[in-house]
Amino acid sequence: MEYYINPCSGISIDVKSGQMISVIDIEGGQVVDFFAESAVDSEEFLSPGVTIDCNESLRLRVGDTIYTNLYKPMFKVISDDVGEHDLLHPCCRPEMYEFFYHNGDNHSNCLDNINGALNSKRPIIHPVNIFMYSEIDGNGDLKVKKPLSKAGDKVVLETLMDVRLGIAACSVSESECNSGKCTAVKIIVE
Ligand SMILES: [Zn+2]
């Protein structure tokens, strides 16, 4: 099945254990906020923090596992055309736009788009920010740079438990995060 995520929007997809998920940057330079909850218990969900802990790395590499808050394997990285993704930033939200750009009112944002898609009210969502390029220097300073993804680049994940995905095409046009513009994303589940 193929799914299109329009710019600045989110969708949910039910995916079974064993299925493959391709996350495709259609035009290039677009961040995808990738979140999931267990199909049987929404209190078990994807955790970048646990993923950093278990993999002992701030990076996501081919062969790595993405874990839940309960330290269970949720996805495995099968292939990756880009190699730069972000495990640190929470979903953008109105307060983030207000903090940095003073334009939070009615701004499309990944927190509301994913909560809306999942019919949930999570107070904060930490996704895997696929294609987001966060550079950390030796002092720990963090800079968000333009994604390295080119048109058609993809990441393929194997699903290791039954899940409900909540995925958003990120809404930030104010910085280099999405190369200065918001574009669509394609998801293939097979
Ligand atoms: Zn966002």
- Helical percent range? 10-25%
Contiguous helical run count: 3
- Strands ordered across the widest β-sheet: 1-12-3-10-6-5
Q: Biggest sheet: strands, sense, closure?
A: 6 strands, antiparallel
Structure characterization notes:
- The chain has 190 residues and is mainly beta.
- The chain has one domain.
- Helices cover 13% and strands 34% of the residues.
- It has three helices and twelve strands, in the order E-E-E-E-H-E-E-H-H-E-E-E-E-E-E.
- It has a six-stranded antiparallel beta sheet with strand order 1-12-3-10-6-5. A four-stranded antiparallel beta sheet has the order 2-11-4-7, with helices on one face.
- The radius of gyration is 15 Å and the shape is globular.
- It binds zinc ion (ZN).
